[in-house]
Write a structure and sequence with these properties.
671 residues, alpha/beta, Four Helix Bundle (Hemerythrin (Met), subunit A), Rossmann fold, 22 helices, Ferric/Cupric_Reductase, transmembrane, membrane, transport
């Protein structure tokens, strides 16, 4: 069934009325199928079932229709303001099309033409050729249908606004808590108890349940639980029906329809949050102190909720149409096909986004994710457009999804255009690592790198931390350390240790190291099995840089900074180490001597322990470093998932065991 009508602006209840005033709409609905003097005899050809179709001009000019309608309105809308009735009369007597004739008489003019109150009851099987009385029972069934449907649709929109505003405001409100003057020990204990640890167990970055799932932290789990419970409650409460009802033959049919409608609307609304949370240019990242990883995890769960709601919506309407015997004809209509395509695409997305697929086939996952997401948005939009046109504003939520997606990608393109096409210089450090230098560009944080000529998949991009924004000029040489020293240490699993350089010495070392350097972005990349494995075959190549992202972490307020890095995780920590002016200690575990040599100059003047070829004892490291610590400490880490999980576990234990004031920052990417 296709519904046509005038273009609505806004949402139902927020700029779009459906049937208000209900008392008047119920009157018109009671006689809208009446045969009038100006109604054509039949409509239909070639032996099809014929039925009379009354044109808008007929409704606007037929005197019996106008007087019968006006008399009914006068009986049932006595408490409604006259101006509201007149407005409704002008807009709805002829129908609800964008362009239609106005009734030839106003409501009050029509009432004046009724000199004698009608006594004969309306008979829908007979022509309406005089002013008649609409029975209360007939009016009441239409009043119930109109009033409950619009009321419930307004409720759905209200609940949707609660969900989307909660999804935006809760992160903002909770992030503002960092400005409240709570004692630092309280903050540390709260973080160690309900924010930083995994939901249960000791794994957050590492997958659990047969490698299928990434557990959120407790803080992330609270937010996800809030959105989940909110959706569960708002999908099911305040759904009711009145009988008798002209739309539905049974209470079960009415309730089933309203649940289907509610879950459909809320599924649309949750898509807005799902697209918002997934964006690199999510404005909440700029307002709050929540990490991109937190929003990515929230994206997964809110997308799951939206998918389940879409499935419920589709299944319930399938059941309703089968029960009504209209499924065969209805399922051939375009709106049904587009809606089914959107639901199927969401279901496939759900199953193809599990961690093993993301981990092993990231490029395929990403392409699949983008294509299916486009099908979801287009299918959802056309599902509404072809079913209701633009009457009721359901498509507004799809416009919001498109706006969020469009904003994110426009900003991405701006960030790309900012640097233009550059030439990257590739230096092979060993079989596992390469250094990529991009002269003439400065930046910090991390950036997404595109290598358009590396493979035929020119659109692929990956995030990498900026290791440095400096590059030695041609007349300088980088001091090297005898490789045999590192080779021997790697064989023995030994440790290289550098002593703390005091303030003035540290600054002199740094100024000497950086003197004469030109602006350049440097990235250290561990070559994997995907796009990056091809870098070993090139010495220079065109590159596009989308950045900079995530460079606003502030560690200056802490008296002590302990940095723990694993492998190329050092690149994410170097800017934080350089920004910190108090006591700073770096522990870096690496398995590549070439990688360590490449960072020798960058690490000059930094108190550090470099652990080569063996597992770092993180518990011992942190206990030794924090044994006599009285001030506020920031522990930052970046590296393999097992390392960051161990740091998370040890820090939360030390906060409670030693009453230490520790802030934990984990620099990590996720997808």
């Amino acid at each position: 069934m296709i519904s046509k009508g005038r273009f609505g602006h806004g949402l139902i209840g927020y700029g779009i009325p459906m049937y208000q005033p209900f008392c008047a709409s119920a009157c018109r609905d009671s006689i809208k199928s009446a045969t009038l003097n100006c109604t054509p005899a039949v409509s239909g050809t070639h032996g099809e079932h014929s039925m009379a179709i009354t044109e808008p001009k007929c409704y606007a000019t037929d005197e019996s229709f106008l007087t019968t309608l006006a008399y009914c309105v006068s009986q049932h809308c006595s408490s409604t303001s006259l101006w509201k009735v007149e407005r409704w009369w002008k807009a709805n007597v002829a129908g609800n099309a964008d362009i239609q004739p106005e009734p030839k008489w106003s409501y009050q003019q029509t009432l004046l033409r009724i000199t004698t109150p009608p006594t004969a009851n309306y008979n829908k099987k007979a022509p309406l050729n005089t002013t008649t009385l609409i029975p209360n029972s007939t009016w009441f069934t239409n009043f119930n249908a109109d009033s409950e449907f619009e009321t419930l649709e307004i409720t759905s929109e209200n609940f949707g606004l609660i969900i989307v505003l909660s999804g935006v405001l809760v992160p903002i409100v909770f992030s503002l808590a960092r400005f409240l003057p709570f004692p630092s020990l309280w903050r540390s204990k709260v973080s160690a108890l309900i924010v930083d640890p995994p939901l249960f167990g000791s794994k957050h970055s590492q997958p659990v349940f047969w490698n299928l799932l990434i557990l959120p932290t407790r803080g992330q789990a609270f937010f996800i639980a809030y959105l989940t419970i909110l959706n569960l409650v708002l999908s099911s409460v305040d759904i009711w029906t009145k009988q008798p009802n002209s739309w539905y033959e049974s209470t079960n049919e009415a309730i089933t329809t309203y649940i289907a409608n509610r879950t459909g609307v809320l599924s649309f609304i949750n898509l807005v949050l799902a697209f918002l949370y997934a964006g690199r240019n999510n404005f909440l990242l700029w307002i709050t102190n929540w990490s991109h990883l937190t929003f990515i995890i929230a994206h997964r769960y809110i997308a799951l909720i939206s998918t389940l709601q879409a499935i419920i919506h589709s299944v319930l309407y399938l059941v309703l149409k089968v029960q009504a015997g209209t499924h065969t004809s209805e399922s051939k209509l375009s709106y049904w096909i587009w809606g089914a395509a959107a639901t199927v695409a969401m279901t496939i997305l759900l199953h193809t986004s599990i961690h093993p697929i993301r981990q092993r086939c990231y490029e395929l996952f990403l392409a699949n994710h983008i294509v299916l997401s486009i099908i979801v948005v287009i299918g959802s939009y056309y599902h509404i457009l072809l079913r209701f046109q633009h009457q009721w504003g359901y498509e507004v939520w799809m416009w919001a999804v498109m706006a969020v997606w469009g904003f994110d990608h426009i900003v991405r393109w701006i960030r790309l255009a900012r640097h233009g096409i550059r030439t990257a210089q590739v230096t092979i450090l060993d079989e596992d690592y390469v250094r990529v230098n991009v002269p003439g560009v400065a930046g910090s944080g991390h950036a997404y790198l595109y290598f358009p000529t590396l493979t035929w998949r020119f659109w692929e991009n990956h995030p990498f931390s900026v290791a440095s924004t400096l590059l030695p000029t041609p007349d300088q040489t980088t001091p090297m350390i005898d490789s045999s020293e590192y080779t021997d240490m790697e064989k023995k699993g030994g440790r290289l240790q550098a002593q703390l350089v005091s303030g003035s010495d540290s600054e002199s070392h740094r100024s000497q190291s950086y003197k004469g350097h030109d602006a350049s972005l440097t990235f250290l990349i561990r070559t994997q099995t995907g796009l990056t494995r091809h870098l070993h075959q090139r010495t220079n190549l065109p590159i596009l840089i989308e950045g900079n992202y995530g460079s606003d972490t502030d560690v200056t307020q802490y008296s002590t900074l302990i940095a723990i890095a694993g492998g190329v995780g050092i690149t994410a920590l170097l800017p934080l180490i350089r920004a910190h002016s108090g006591r700073t200690k770096l522990y870096w575990g690496a398995r590549s001597s070439a990688l360590i040599r490449d960072f020798e100059v960058s690490l000059e003047g930094i108190d550090k322990d470099i652990i080569l070829g063996q597992r770092m004892d993180i518990a011992l490291v942190l206990e030794n470093e924090l044994r006599d610590e009285k001030g506020e400490v920031c522990v930052v880490c970046s590296g393999p998932n097992s390392m960051t999980d161990e740091v998370r576990t040890v820090v939360t234990r030390l906060v409670w065991k030693k009453n230490l004031k520790i802030k934990l920052i984990v620099e990590a990417f996720s997808w």
